[in-house]
Amino acid sequence: MPIVVALDVMLARRKMKSKDLASIIGISEANLSLLKQGKVRGVRFATLEAICRALQCQPGDLLEYVVDDATPEVSHDARIGSSRDR
């Protein structure tokens, strides 16, 4: 998967347990675990905002795009904000 979630790294840097973060942001430990493992298909901006607030970090500290040869190229017309969508 081309998006890597580095939540576990940020938790370690902040010396915070997953259990504590889950409690602070108001989600279950199970859902936080799925997010840490990158096994979710999406994350709400409100959840991402709460995580960033609790860990005092930026979204880019938690999410990283990694080029994956198995991922098909996206055509220019399919990208967000193409002139066709306006």
UniProtKB/TrEMBL annotation:
Classification via Pfam families: HTH_26 (PF13443)
UniProt-listed SMART domains: HTH_XRE (SM00530)
Coiled coil: none
Superkingdom classification of source: Bacteria
Residue ranges of domain HTH cro/C1-type in the record: 13-62
InterPro entries: Cro/C1-type_HTH, Lambda_DNA-bd_dom_sf
Protein name in UniProt: Helix-turn-helix domain-containing protein
Organism in which the protein naturally occurs: Rhodanobacter ginsengisoli
